[in-house]
Amino acid sequence: MTPITEVAGRRLALSNLEKVIYPATGFTKGEVLHYYATTADALLAHLHDRPISFLRYPDGPDGQVFFAKNVPPGTPDWVVTAEVPRSEGPARMVLVQDLASLMWAANLVTEFHTHQWRIGTPGQADRLVFDLDPGPPATIVECCEVALWLRERLAADGIESYAKTSGSKGLHLLAALEPTPSGRATEYAKELAVAAEKDMPRLVLHRMTRSLRPGKVFVDWSQNAARKTTAAPYTLRARAEPTVSTPVTWEEVADCTAARPLAFQAPDIAPRLQEHGDLLAPLLDPGHAAPLP
């Protein structure tokens, strides 16, 4: 029998709590839900007003993994949804605005991916993002080297940037922007990616050609496009272990080595939040938003 739990005044059916989602560590669905409940304050702030794309893996990362952008069948009527413009026609997507909605979505076993804009201003980016993706044998260590270069280059343009692990192999850089057309944000991000490749040709690649990626860090600038999404801060990932897209300090980025790589799992996050707070909180402060040059 599926247990019924009340969360913030909403009745939720939370199923299969003992099911192992991450076989490598024995991490269960119940632990997935507990993780999201204990990080809700930080996570919800970054999801607020951003249409959600779900990457679902209900049988774990070794089972079926699929993206769901439209409102899933059976979504409770109290979950906020909104119409989102798309080139192929408008679609209705979920907004995870509160704890009850978060726990409902977490029960589907999902990664949370968001656009760089909010529902009130679709296509007007308020965040800039770079996804640094290493091509083996390059690792997150090389991503950190590229991140430090990008940080200085952004600072020269008056833009303060922040880092988080992707929760997979690489690193994400984010910055708060004054509302900017997504096309312009994409152009600017590409300009910086090209400049990074010119300055570090043996290390950086700005093109998506997979045959060129081995040993280099692909600086993916394209996720600034209005239609694209990026893994949200604090989301679990569909990996062998319960890895998390984790905000990190610039000191940690500078100190990253093969012996001390930046990799964090669900049990690491509560202590980090207690020690650092939300390292990406400045992204939520309009006072930190910068114009593009």
Automatic annotation (TrEMBL):
- Superkingdom is Bacteria
| A Pfam family matched in the record | LigD_Prim-Pol
Presence of keyword Ligase: yes
User: Could you tell me the keywords of this UniProt record?
Assistant: Ligase
Residue ranges occupied by any DNA ligase D polymerase domain in the UniProt entry:
28-279
Annotated Gene Ontology MF terms? Answer: ligase activity
According to the UniProt entry, where is the signal peptide?
Answer: none
PANTHER family documented for this protein: BIFUNCTIONAL NON-HOMOLOGOUS END JOINING PROTEIN LIGD
Would you tell me the protein name for this molecule? Answer: ATP-dependent DNA ligase
Native source species: Streptomyces avermitilis
